[in-house]
Amino acid sequence: MQPGLLIRLRPLGAWRFGPADGSHDRVDTLYRSDRLYSAVTLAMQRLDLLDQWLDATARTAKPAVVFSSLFPFQGDTLYAIPPATLWPPPPVLLNSPSPVFLTKIRWKTARFVPLTVIDSLVTGQPILADQWLPDPESGCLLRRDRPSSSPFRIVVRTTTAVDRLTHASDETKPLACVEFEANAGLWTVARFAGPAQEQAWSARLQAALRLLSDSGFGGGRSKGWGQTQTGEFQAGSWPALLLPKLGRLLRNSPAAASEEGRGLFWLLSLYSPATADKVDWSGGNYSLAARGGRVESTAGQGVVKKTVRMVSEGCVLASQEEPVGTAVDVAPDGFAHPVYRSGFALALRLPVVEVQPQEKMPVEESSTTEAVVEEFLPAEQAEQEVAAVEPFIESHPIAEVVEHPAEIPATEIIAEHAEPVEPPPAEPPIIEPPPAEPPDTEPPEIEPPGIEPPGIEPPNTEPPIIDPPNEPQVEEPSPESAATADPPSPPPAEAAKEEEPPHEI
Fold this sequence. Notes:
By secondary structure, this protein is α+β, with helices and mostly antiparallel strands.
């Protein structure tokens, strides 16, 4: 196994890594390995190590250091682009207690997958489908049982150029950038060709990355974009540094990494094939990406580079040996010096494992229909009713199919009978009226003049007779008003005690 160095970068602000066409309102999907190599090369130039660095990497057939692209991380979870041959995951490697999750999860929407999931897939171990949920904003596969926000998001800001003397501006332009959460950032891994190369370049590489943390990565560095905290470095062996299960598998059974004929290699970086690489382009699963940009040099600042096509991250190549790649000179014609674009491959050979099919967990069929029918219908009629509604169980609720007699409320029963009937005990009890109080001693209210009740003759103009308060008496209505008024219905005996004495008209 080769030595490696895991590097974590925690951004202090926004980052910008623009697309290959140079659009300002969009960003690239990730900070790719060729761009990282260019940034490290400029840092080596400031450290006066440019010639030694180019001799160890771009000017040799087998580079001493190879970088992966910068992938996101959140907390302790590292994300990467999974192998194209294992994503979406095959059904034989999915395990779920309910088949509903297998049909509702859109695996293709997840672009970045945790390394723990990739480690299980490449070693042939199943994963629990109901524990994961794709994040539509960042494209990361997040844990369903651990609430967390997106590791990063793409934001479009508005910028304008202001004259320092007149403080005037011409126009505003949109500029896209990437913003990270507080506990999120980007990670990469540097693989050394051997222990000697690690001893020679590990400390220098860490110094260059510390310099880049202050100066910034990518575009917008004059605005303070691309700066990070001091990098976090973790040394280990490749590939156990990223995939511990795969490292144990290769250590315990070396035969799993060998295969007669050709093997499959998973790319974690961009790849430009070298003449010595033996890649079978009729097999595997790969896609191409166009790479361009501008030169950053004192010999010609901002000159457009040549555009090249490279194999993208996450692709799987079929080859007899591990692909190495090469550094392509993309300097414009007649430029003062070469301009290298790193196409060195950081590839991992996928092991050969036999996957045993998982036994599907039995799912008990719902018996809600029979339970609901038998509750209201006799046994013989219930069996007929179940047979009639069985084909419609999935599309129609059982409450719409089964008909059963409804109980008549007690209030409706009382309304149908002439004689009052006591309500059932389930209904709230009737509250008895309070005992009769002595009649009110206040004088009765006098109807305003001009308002005549229907069916009653106009009242007399004489003032009403008011009884003294000590001796309340009830005045009987006149014969004329008694003859024209409707006879009231006889109230109950107890309710009659509450009625106030009729007013004298």
